Amino acid sequence: MSDKVETAYGAEQIQVLDGLEHIRKRPGMYISSTDEKGLHHLVSEVVDNSIDEALAGYCTRVDVTINPDGSCTVVDNGRGIPTAIHPKEGISTVEVVFTKVNAGGKFGGDSGYKVSSGLHGVGVKAVNALSEWLEVEVSQNGHVYKQVYNRGVPQRSLAIVGDTDKTGTKVTFFPDAEIFETITFRYETLKIRLKELAFLNKGLTITLEDRREGKEKKDSFCYEGGIRELVEELNRGQETLFETPLYFEAQEDTTVCEIALQYNESYNEVVYSYANNVNTIDGGTHVEGLKLALTKVINDAGKKLNILKDSDKLTGEDVREGITAVVSVKLENAQFESQTKDKLNNSFIRPFVNKAVVDKFGEYLEEHPSETRELVLRCITAQKARDAARNARELTRRKGILETTTLPGKLADCSDRRPELCEIYIVEGDSAGGTAKQGRDRRFQAILPLRGKILNVEKVRLNRALENAEIKAMITAFGCGILDDFDESKLRYDRIISMTDADVDGAHIRILLLTFLFRYMRPLIEHGHVYSAKPPLYKATVKGKTEDVYLYSEEEKTLFDAANNNKVEYQRYKGLGEMSTEQLWETTMNPATRTLIKVSMADAMEADKMFNLLMGESPALRRKFIEENATLVTDLDI
Fold first, then answer.
1. Does residue 554 have a pLDDT over 90?
2. How large is the average pLDDT for residues 238-253?
3. What integer is the mean pLDDT of 515-526?
4. In this predicted structure, what is the pLDDT of residue 604?
5. Angle at which helices 187-200 and 36-55 pack, to 10 degrees?
6. Annotated catalytic sites, by residue?
7. Are 525 and 567 part of one and the same domain?
8. Does the pLDDT value for residue 167 go beyond 70?
9. Which residues on neighbouring strands pair with residue 191, listed in sequence order?
10. N or C: which end of the chain has fewer CB within 10 A?
11. How far apart are the C-alpha atoms of 319 and 376, rounded to whole Å?
12. For 107-145, what is each residue's pLDDT tens digit?
């Protein structure tokens, strides 16, 4: 038994946090984190309220602006938050909405919203509590009402500040630097989410504008085709089975489901799911309904066309190979598995979605026999490949994470066996691998050299991928398995670092490696285990000075040259193998002096599109992307 903690414990030790104090004390409970992700979640909370107005049929436009001072403004043309005095609280309803935890218009019954993404009455209150200041303006009843808050505390009562013939709500807030690790909004992060919301709410216009000096830009999103256009965009550059994505919609009382799907020539299954505009990344009953229906419909179609015998049966994996699908449901009283809303649990949604797909997709296949025949034959091919892949996968499984006899022979492992302290460098070629092995710290750094460019897994099935020696070596070295067999607890290294040459070939190898990790071991990226090393391009020696300087880009070289009056000798590193062990350690492997770029995955959908574009079958789209982005930074933020 552990020793007792000698501290006082009585009534005075029990804290009661009033108002929004608890949110400021425990922000992670409400916005998941206080890093960049949590910062952008604030914007989502405000925007979600505007989207809920759109779901209720009262809002057609949402405008989001990053202001010159770094604050953010969200404006909608909905009904506006009620401004009257709340009968129970005795203050304006606006103040209730922004300060009273568990007060809101989304609790069912005769509430203001039948369908909404926010269910707990906390959203904008968390934004208010975690902002240095917040201003809300409501246009309603011919007037403009305004109230200002400092760290959640109202500075005065709601007051009329002008007249208007419009309706809507405007919220401007400045995140609190006392709470967040960064208070700088990223335009691209907001753009991804707002574009997604525009797809999910067909006909709704959403704009994003950046007014910060030197960063000015603006985008506007409106998709009359909704999620059908989303599937179209996800499959851009792919050869597809159906000329345009199929779209089905069904409604029963206030419950609505939309499904869009299209098959392509890839071997990946891509299914995105939403409930009341919330991205349910772990699926749920709506996804289960879709998957059950696809299996039934395609098996039935195969038997009707006499392609499948009565005893034959395609599995769910077989019928979903190459599919890109989006399922979006809107329902009252959505029940999620957790506060993070990653999985939908309402049981009645499963048969509801299932019936919609069986009826409508079944009808389509019956009316298009040639496309149906091609689809069924592709599923049969997928079944054969899956059987081969299962056999190949068995060969790659490790019996235990510390059985070093099973590790690849070319792996130079580290001596420490504590994964949280260890890292592995994936190195291009034997030359660089040899230098890295000599220059590393053997206690915690492992080196795995790869021979040339690894297989592009975007273009092959799993069984082919598992026949590749380099891919098998990585799977074995990492120890955590792949796909359904993935187990992060068995990961042998906390950091997986891609260390390739600072040239085009090195970048290509890095993308191939990231593609493999994204498709087969995605949680490694999601949980921050994947990095890219940043080796220098030049070593600069200034006449008369003893210490060399390492430069990491052509721009750095130009500036350094100008600052030293051209009295510099440069060594251009064509590859890592040209460095001495001391140079490689100092610039690229020493934790005290190196630069590592963490590969993040802010949005899986954007990453999916990027990998399809960079590694897919369309050279024209790939060339266009490279030409348009040739001057961008070299790191890839997935």
1. no
2. 92
3. 89
4. 57
5. 30
6. 428, 501, 503, 505
7. no
8. yes
9. none
10. N
11. 8
12. 344 445 556 555 444 689 999 999 999 999 999 999 999
Q: What is the mean pLDDT of residues 399-428?
A: 77
Read off φ and ψ for residue 582, nearest 5 degrees.
Answer: -65, -40
The identity of residue 544, as a single letter, is G
The predicted-structure confidence for 445-463, as pLDDT tens digits, reads as follows: 999 998 877 888 877 888 8
Query: Contacts for 438-445 with beta carbons within 8 Å, 24 or more apart?
Result: 438/581, 439/580, 439/581, 439/582, 439/584, 439/585, 439/589, 440/412, 440/585, 440/589, 441/589, 442/412, 442/414, 442/415, 443/414, 443/415, 443/416, 444/414, 444/416, 445/414, 445/589
Residues 209, 255: one domain? Answer: no
What are the Cα distances from residue 329, in Å, to 45, 271, 487? 19, 14, 31
Residues 544 and 616 in one domain: no
530-533/549-551 β-pairing = unpaired
Whether residues 30 and 73 fall in one domain: yes
Same domain, residue pair 548 and 515: no
The mean-pLDDT minimum among 96-100, 220-224, 298-302 falls in 96-100
Residue of 266 and 327 predicted with greater confidence: 327
End position of a domain, from candidates 393, 408, 432: 393
Q: What is the mean pLDDT of the chain?
A: 84
Q: Are residues 215 and 304 in the same domain?
A: no
Task: Average the pLDDT over 185-210 and give the result.
Answer: 95
- What amino acid is encoded at 177 in this protein? A
Q: Which of 333, 277, 344 is nearest to 106 (CA)?
A: 333
Residue 424 token pair: 């592995």
Supply the pTM of this predicted model: 0.74
The answer to whether residue 342 scores a pLDDT higher than 80 is yes
CATH number at residue 622: 3.40.50.670
Q: CA-to-CA distance for 91 and 19, rounded, in angstroms?
A: 14
Burial class of residue 28 (count of CB atoms within 10 Å of its CB; 0-12, 13-18, 19+): exposed
**The CATH number of the domain where 305 resides is what?**
3.30.230.10
pLDDT, tens digit, for every residue of 272-282? 999 999 889 88
Number of folded domains that form the chain: 4
Q: Are residues 378 and 412 in the same domain?
A: no
Question: Do the domain assignments include residue 12?
Answer: no
Q: Which of 620, 631, 550 is nearest to 587 (CA)?
A: 550
Residue 523 covered by a domain: yes
Question: Can you spell out the DSSP letters for 430-480?
Answer: HHHHHHHHHHS-TTTEEEEEE-SSPP-GGGS-HHHHTT-HHHHHHHHHH-S
Within 10 Å of residue 176's Cβ, how many Cβ atoms?
21
Answer yes or no: is 14 within a domain: no
Enumerate the β-bridge partners of residue 423: 445, 495
Note the pLDDT of residue 32: 76
Q: How far apart are CA 116 and CA 358, in angstroms?
A: 27
| Cα–Cα dist 261/356, whole Å | 13
Q: Within 84-234, where are the H helices?
A: 93-99, 123-129, 187-200, 227-234
Check whether residue 280 and residue 373 sit in a common domain: yes
Residue 633 inside a domain? The answer is no
- Average the pLDDT over 176-205 and give the result: 94
- Calpha distance 433→448 (Å, rounded): 7
> CATH no. for residue 98?
3.30.565.10
Domain boundary among 189, 221, 253: 221
